[in-house]
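Researcher: Before we compare anything, I want clean individual predictions. No alignment, no superposition, just each chain on its own. First chain goes here; please echo the sequence and then give the structure tokens.
Model: Echoing the first chain and its structure:
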Amino acid sequence: MPVSKKTGSQWIKAVFSDSRVQKYSGLVCYPQKRYEYEGLPKKFPKYTFCPGLYIPYYLYEEIEKPEDYRTFYVIRDPRNVVISWYYSMLQTHSIMGNVSNYRTRLRSMTFEDGITYCIKRLHVKFAYLRSWMNRNDDYQLLIVKFEDMTNSPNEEFKKLFEHCKIDIPNRKFNEILEDYSKENMRKRDLARRKYKSESHYRIQSSNWKDVFTSRHEELFNAINGDLLKVLNY
């Protein structure tokens, strides 16, 4: 039962759901849900890949698991998560849950105030993020940085597959990773915008260093304490 975190989840979900990967993994993708609305199940079916569990570690511990399960948790610099979440709520995320309320609020604000709003709104999710760190006693859990995956996708996906005990021939592995390169994923997703379907990619990405003011940095640190140190950012 491999599990991934939201960061890069659409990319990772696409790779693990590919029929070529499923052939070697024996796993089918479990439908992704918003468990804060629908409730977390007591257990998931065997032989499933369960993406997008946006929950703290203590709730994850309560899930009944098969004996030989594997979990991976993808983290990202939370300051860049703030920027990504801002644009997602403002522009690209499908309307569900509280998205409509967030979008209305952000559209009424200046850009700087909108970033401030997002920093304040995300502190609970960042507390969840903190709860997954320093779990050295859990050998079935692998923590992966999103930045490492984007910089060295072949190396990092090899780690994920090895952790999940998925043995894919090198030729097939390279073929799959090329099909799901960030560039090809972005092209396909942006193309869907032309047909008014949802796209999670922006044409240009932003780094927190280009966006955060000193006030934003002070607020982020005041709310989240030593989170950056805990995450090694």
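Researcher: Okay. Second chain, same rules.
Model: Second chain and its structure:
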Amino acid sequence: MHLVTLRAHLLCLTLLAAGALAQPPAHDDQRVTEADIRAALRELPNGRVERPEFESLTDEQIRYLEGILSGPRSAISGPLVVMLASPELGDLAQRLMAYARFAGSEGFGSVPPKLNELAVLMAARTWSSPYVWNAHHRFAVSVGLPAELVEAIRTGSPPPENLEPDVQAVYDFLDEFLTNKQVSDATFDAARNALGGDRQLVDLVGTFAIYQMSAMLTAVDRTGLAEGEAPTLRPLE
């Protein structure tokens, strides 16, 4: 099967201990080969949605996998695996997910990583997604989110006092949005000011929505965690 050569400006992620990602570095051209795709398929985590063999891939699935592997990711993971069942959806969604995941890097979302990860963790908590949580909670702390706040989100407890003003404003925005399905003018203005403008606020809502999709897909699939990892996020009683 012929595999096209794709131009890649951003490749080869820097993986942190949690499996979450730092800023993706720029690289030269990369050809996505059959061997690359076969290797990626061998590393797919377990789940309920069928994991295809290379020989059964459709042209659409090949293009979907090439699109991922030629971008800022080095693996097919989490919701990207689930969407192999619907590669047309996957191709659209994976670009949105990359835009949100690499926020703070040139060409991606405009939300500072610390505040972007706050939205990711609150999305994971909303859907009790151990996969999304395990992929992000340590990274969130490494980019400046207080560990005490991360633990409070995990356990469904009130946030700690004396949070930094930007963290407090974004937490209040997301919490009020979840609770009331809307936000007051005062909460909106505080979050917009903390983030730096309308674009950043819209990108924050986008991250929150996209990672709820990620959490939902991995929850439906029951996507397996990395070998040796135990779930650290469970449904609240």
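Researcher: What stands out in the second chain?
Model: The longest helix spans residues 198-221. Additionally, The two ends are 50 Å apart (CA to CA).
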